[in-house]
Amino acid sequence: MFDKVKSLMEMQKKMQEMKRQLENTVFDVQSSDGIIRLTMNGSQELKGVKITADLKALDCAALEQAVKDALAKAIKRSQEVAAEKMKEITGFNAPGLT
Question: What is the pLDDT of residue 94?
Answer without folding.
Answer: 57
